[in-house]
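Minutes, project check-in
Item: structure for the 556-residue chain
Input as provided by the requester:
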Amino acid sequence: MKTDTTQMPSFLNDLLQPTPSGVMKLMAAWDGLSTETHILILSLLPSRQYPNHLLRQVRDKALDSEVPYIRYLSYRGIYFDNDNIVEIKTKSRIESDPDSLVRYVTKEQDFSLGDVELSDPKKFFALPQAERLAKVRILLGSGEKIARIISDAVGRKLITPWGSSPQDGKVSETELCDILSDYLIRPEFRERFLEETYDGWLEHTKGEELKALWNVAPECPASVSTLMIEHLPVKSAFFSEIPNDVIEKLDDYQLQTLFYRPDIGLSDLRKSIFFNKEKSENLRVAAASYNFSLDNKEFQEILSLPEKERNNELRNLATYSHDLRLCVYQALYDYLFLTDYWEDGLYAERSKARKLSCIDPNRQNKRDILQLRLYILARYAVPVKDGETGYPPDDELAFLKERIIPHNTWETFIEFDSAWQAYPKKDALEKFLPRIDEIDPENECDETVDANADLISRVEDKIDHLMAASSKALAESENKSEKISEDILSLQDKLSHDVQATKEYALHLSENIEQSLIAFIENNFEKRIKIQNNLRGLLYLICGLLIIILFEIMKK
């Protein structure tokens, strides 16, 4: 047991000195220390380099404890010399302890070499259950022996039903579950298979152990097989996936258990089962839980189902599927939001937010993010809810407008996605797509403003151009007041129709102003200053009207 000595209380420094004085102090303080402190002291003993005779004093003191767990820790992991009288007596004392945890602590080993009972299933099952547990409690490896023990129990029909008491040398399903729990559900067990070494034989052995354990899993009773399927590793240097013959032996409940593991791939099998309506809904939902995705056409098939069946499929996907694409999660939320099951759509929204929080848009999932932007654009063009006004893409994205499918948001997205992939200059246009709040810079506008930002910019440029042209005309020429008034009324009438007409008329007006003023200067230069002042005021009035009308149009 590894313990961080940096967290050791300072008062233990004197008590844990590996010297005679240190041990005397520890013995003097022992009875007044708490159980937690006793546990800490025993865990630190291996790192303190005590002489054997001093170490034995501390362990013997712990063995005198009234707390069974302290007695258990006192000599845990210690090898006893059968030729040493003192150690023989200590071992005998431990093996006669009234508590089974203490009594069988000498049976705990992390390797099985030379262990007769682990090598012979009949002898193993002849042991008391507490001793069986002790033999596997810290055991590393020996997967083939454990598999042989389980297989023997299944083959000889030694397993009695769950909850019953074993009789005539049999083992209950409960006891077998306990044995496997102590063996499988330990961090050390899993870490051993995850750790890669340069020892080829060791890696080969680990692969054979996993293969043997997986092979026996389908044969076991439900509770035992569930335990194995939930906790057996699926990868090692010489074991990359569960053998096909094992998967073929799994029944629907065992498959369901397997599919709920996020580290289990089997994407093709998952999809095959999901679209097999003859399978139970529980199994289909489990198949879609992890390592499962839907392409555009597959999701369209679901949206095309009758309403009741479609809503049920959408609810299951939104609630249980963890690895769908971002655009599918958004669509699940949008479509469910219009039904009585809108609360299930919130699961899809959370899953989308979870995925967005874990990705770097500059390095990964670019395609996934792009499709989400295209779906949002399609939703602008063709709202999910019938009757709502759509806003088709224009300007730089106008090439997508002809791909709109009326009354069908998802098919419109499919068309947008196809057209985008075929467009030669698509990379330069990504900046015009809708933004995503979770990953786009915070100082950008919201989605609506972003979608219209370029249009606003171009309108402002035209206004600036109009003002510059008018200023230039004032500097060069004058016009008659009556002509300007007529032009202003005409301009106001045209601006009430649309912004583009306003722009064109303003440019035309500038040319007329320039020609008229030049002609007037040639005829009457002396009145220039006075008329110029009048024109400046009128021009400001024009600009003010332009801006007011423009804002009214934008509000609409």
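Outcome recorded: The beta strands are 159-160, 171-172.
No further action items on this chain.
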